[in-house]
Each structure stands twice: as structure tokens, then as C-alpha cells.
Amino acid sequence: MQAGTAVGNLASVIGIRPEEAALVSELQAGSEQAYSWLIATYHQPIYSLIARTILNPADASDLTQEVFLKVFRGIGGFHGEASLRTWIYRIAIHEASNQKRWWCRHQRHEITIETDMGDQNEGHPIALKDTLVDEHESPFELAAHEEIRARVEEELRLVPDPFRTVVILRDIEGFGYEEVAEILGVNLGTVKSRLMRGRAHLKARLTTYAAAQAKHPVRTSPGAISMTSCTEEAR
């Protein structure tokens, strides 16, 4: 595979890991297997990111498909200026930002439609639920996680942009500060400032609930913001 070898040889020069360089080569060559792997690996994370970022989670599925269309169409111009993962997330954030601007222009009057998922938890509407559940947890722990996730997701959606986006990328998606800066196209200081302010906003909204939850702590599941990070790190 000459194309794969050529790209692999350039990996050390342009900063791409050899295995990623080979994958990029396959994608650029139109490999269906490589595209299938890409979708299987990134579809759920990108969907979750978009659902948490845009104003109407019901649009997340269509927007996710649009992101992957942009990836497929743009992979030929990918030259390793960033990691493949960072590049994909950058496209997702850009599409989510465009959708939010469209929403604000054309559907501001529908801002609350479908934000209530239909269930109630202590009188509060439950927002988007995290489907990553640890099967080894007790029923009590599972119920507690659902309550925490629902409340955090509900309050996170009310944190002002762009602070919310940085909290999602850093605290939920697990990107490093430098990666977040690269995805958003801002400097490191801006990322840290927005993260601090985003956590502070979330802390202010969750302080009372966090104090009650701290009396009965439970393990947090992957992909969820812990109540500790929302409160203590915002100090």
C-alpha cells in the first residue's frame, strides 16, 4: 500500500502517529472499512457533544450526520495540522455553532420545545440521559446517577455559551487544555478563563443540590461531570 507507506513515513515530520497516518491514508483512498471504523468510533461521542451543545437536542441526530458528511468530503484536505480526533471535533463544534445561530434567528420562539424528555424527577424535567451505565452498580447507585446526570445536564444547558462548550469539551469529553484551544481556535488563557467561568456558573446553579448529594456520595459513571468537579474546581 504505497499511499499508506508514504503517509506513514511523514508521520514523524508532521506530528501524526503512524497508526493514525495509516488510517488517514485509508480514508483518503476511499476505504469503506476505514469509514465504517471511523463512524463506529466517533458517532456516539460526536452525537453526545452536539446534543449537549445545541439548544434543541432533537436536532442532534441530523446534525451528527451532517458532521460526518463534512468529514467525508473534507478528509482529502486533511494534512495533519491537528490530530484526526481534534479535527473531527472542530468540525462538530463549528456545525453546532452554525445551528445555534440559525436557531436564534429562526426558531427563538420554540426554544423550550422537547427540552423536557417526558419524565419527572422530584418535580424537575429530566433532560438528555447518559446511556453509559456501569452494570455492576447497585440499583440505588444507578438511580442516584440518573438523578445526578439529569440535574447536571439540565443546569449545564443553562450555562451561557461559550463557557458551556469549554466545560463540555474539558470535563465531559476529556480533552486537554491545548486540545480544547485547538478545537475552538482560541488561546490557552481563554480556554482556562472560560472553563473557570463555566464551572462557576454551574456551581452557582448546583450548590444546594451538591451539598445534599455530598451526604450520600456515589461513584460517578464515565462521561458524567462529577458533583465535586462542578463545585470544588470552580473555587
Give the tags.
2 domains, elongated, mainly alpha, 10 helices, disordered N terminus, 235 residues
Report on the structure:
This protein is mainly alpha-helical. The chain has 2 domains: 84 residues, Rna Polymerase Sigma Factor, Chain: A; 120 residues, Winged helix-like DNA-binding domain superfamily/Winged helix DNA-binding domain (Arc Repressor Mutant, subunit A, Orthogonal Bundle). It is 65% helix and 2% strand. α3 packs across α4.
Helix content: 55-70%
Please, what is the CATH homologous superfamily of the largest domain? Winged helix-like DNA-binding domain superfamily/Winged helix DNA-binding domain
Shape: elongated
Query: What sequence of helices (H) and strands (E) makes up the elements?
Result: HHHHHEEHHHHH
Provide the structure class.
mainly alpha
Number of domains: 2
CATH architecture of the largest domain: Orthogonal Bundle
Please report the first level of CATH classification, the CATH class of the largest domain: Mainly Alpha
Q: How many beta strands in the DSSP annotation?
A: 2
Question: So how many helices?
Answer: 10
Report the β-strand fraction as a percent range.
Answer: under 5%
The name of the CATH topology of the largest domain is Arc Repressor Mutant, subunit A
Rounded to the nearest angstrom, the radius of gyration is 19 Å
Distance between the termini: 53 Å
Please describe the biggest sheet, giving its number of strands, its sense, and whether it closes into a barrel: 2 strands, antiparallel
Task: Write down the overall mean pLDDT.
Answer: 74
